[in-house]
Amino acid sequence: MARDKIYQEEEFPSPLLQLWHNFRQSPVVLVGFSCFAFLIILAIFAPLITPYSSIENHLDKLLLPPAWDKDGDISFLLGTDDLGRDLFSRLMHGTSLTFGLSFVVVIVSLVIGVFIGSLSALSSGIRSSFLNHFLDVILSIPSLLLAIVIVAILGPGLDNTLWAIVMVLIPQFVHVTRNAVKEEFTKDYVLASRLDGASSLRILRYSVFPNIIEKIISYATLAQSAAILDIAALGFLGLGAPIPLPEWGAMLSSGIDLFYIAPWTVYLPGLAILFSVIATNLVGEGMRHALKIGKES
Amino acid sequence: MPALLEVANLSKSYELSRSWFNKRSFCALEPLSFSVQAYKTLAIVGEAGSGKSTLAKVLVGAERPSTGKIKLNGQTLVDGDFKQRCQHIRMIFQDSGTTLNPSLTIRQLLDEPLKLNTDLDEAQRSQLIRETLFKVGLLADHMNFYPHMFSGGQKQRISLARAIILNPQVIILDEALASLDPSLRSQMINLLLDLQQQMGLAFILISHNLGIVRHFSDSMMVLHKGNVVESGPTADILRAPKDKYTRKLIMGQNYHLLHT
Fold first, then answer.
1. Which one of A8, A163, A189, B3 has the fewest beta carbons within 10 angstroms of its own beta carbon?
2. Which of A189, A199, A205, A212 to mutate against chain B (most B CBs within 10 Å)?
């Protein structure tokens, strides 16, 4: 419904607000964004709203098909697995593991990466090079392989895989931040601010960060879809989340033996992974598109 | 009348190769001296690469001079001390589109120099911003606007407001009028001349447009490849240029004037 304006008020959209206006122009992107928001809410509130706990066994309801099947039961909406655990509850709990943890992982590596990257951009010479490149050796190894190496040393477990993914993402954020800050520092308004007597930190806070935040966020969405896939892949290989945890990749691998008798134990977690990756990518794509429109206008 | 700004033996050279042996340097500005008085305008003229922008950057403090001293009211300015310098010498850049931070409102933009260099409280700063915007012909309502909502001429006025808000004594205009169309340019020139009379400013006008220079400046200096080839009162130089290069410059511009 259109908003009625009774008083004539002028709006002064800030650049970020304008980005949001551009962002929501495309319906597809808005749908993706809603799904993304939905997943975040689900990840936070899943333990409160699930009908059953993720490890509760219903021994009389083994391998129950989803409710729309003629053998299904409406109290187990998406059916059960071979141990009689409710798939619907497990998938919801899995949101906080696969999607929620990937979000946390990206935030952690973003904060560390942006911090190191801006330090590197502010310093010069060998120190700057060192800060920029000391984690680069990690970039030479694919993230999955690195995670496997770390898991091989520290032993399998969800937290070890998370550290591995954080380690892989940090150098990428360092580079993105450093380049963006360096680019921003050559601009005239930074010089103007410096001539006002502003310190480098102040310039960074008021002149540089507001102008590169969109770039970093759009990169973070890319990083998140990679993180989701990594967590799920390691879970699938049995190196990530341990057995009873309802991590989507781990659920997928435990269902794979039952594929012929109970296909829903495989395709439902698979669809969940697909859904979250697509939602994340749509948000990122919309963000980059909005940035591009903003630059052109 | 004592000079407001005195520049003695100022030069700037850049090092080209960084190797330890075979150090070569490129001299952007040969040693030069001049002085400017309050209420007066000095024009610096020259073609691209003549060192005029380097001179502006050195004067405003964005670059350190290789040799020489800059004195303001008889007091030597320290290199790298922006706080001391920016209260007295301000600069307006060529393109205000890039010198205004796109994610800050005009109020925040004008607030920054005040916050950093004065002890005024919130209400006083706000009042001063209002007054300054009024001085350059903008409204107080514009405080909440973002730079992208202004036209080029208005942005130039905001740059001007930013330059005069600290009540400086010298303003450097680095091709500040070049990007404006003729009517805006004349508006801007009149505004600048009014402000000069009101505030007792000294302008250093860096330009390649001799029309503006003739209208605006009291004295001029012609730079060619970092050297001063001629300096003196504007009217005299334009009427009877002594140097060959100056003559060439004037003839070139007259030619332009005839054909546009």
1. A8
2. A189
**B→A interface, C-beta within 8 Å:** 60-62, 82-83, 86, 90-91, 93, 95, 98-105, 108, 112-113, 116-117, 144-146, 148-149, 162
Cβ-nearest to A195 among B82, B95, B104: B82
> Residue B91 is nearest to which of A12, A195, A210, comparing CB atoms?
A195
- The complex scores an ipTM of 0.80
Q: Which of B17-26, B58-67, B123-132 comes out lowest in average pLDDT?
A: B17-26
Mean pLDDT of chain B: 81
Task: Report mean pLDDT in 10-residue bins for chain A, 297 residues.
Answer: 61 77 87 94 91 86 86 86 88 92 95 93 86 82 83 85 89 92 88 83 87 89 92 88 87 89 90 95 90 74
Q: Which residues of A165-197 are buried (b: 16+ CB within 10 A; e: fewer)?
A: bbbbbbbbbbbbbbebbbebbebbbbbbbbbbb
CA A17 – CA A46 distance, rounded (Å): 31
Count of beta carbons in the 10 Å neighbourhood of residue B258: 7
**How many residues belong to chain B?**
260
Q: Name the DSSP class of A57.
A: -
pLDDT digits (tens, 9 = 90+) for B148-204: 888 888 888 888 888 888 888 888 888 777 777 788 888 888 888 888 888 888 888
Asked if A188 lies within 8 A of B98 by C-beta distance, the reply is: yes
- List residues of A whose CB lies inside 8 A of any B CB: 12-16, 187-189, 191-198, 202, 206-207, 210-211
Q: Which domains does chain A have, with CATH numbers?
A: 26-296 (1.10.3720.10)
Quick: pLDDT tens for B118-150. Answer: 888 889 999 999 988 888 888 888 888 888 888
Helix (H) or strand (E) holding B41, with range, is strand B41-45
B144: left (phi over 0), alpha (psi -120 to 50) or beta: alpha
Q: Where are the domains of chain B?
A: 5-259
Ramachandran assignment for A177, one of left (phi > 0), alpha (psi -120 to 50 degrees), beta (any other): alpha
- Chain B contacts of A15, Cβ < 8 Å? 102-103, 146, 148
Closest by Cβ to A197, choosing from B83, B98, B105: B83
CB neighbours (10 Å) of residue A292? 11
Among A187, A198, A206, select the one facing B104 at the smallest CB separation: A206
Number of Cβ within 10 Å of residue A124's Cβ equals 9
Between the alpha carbon of residue A66 and those of residues A62, A75, A77, the distances in Å are: 12, 10, 6
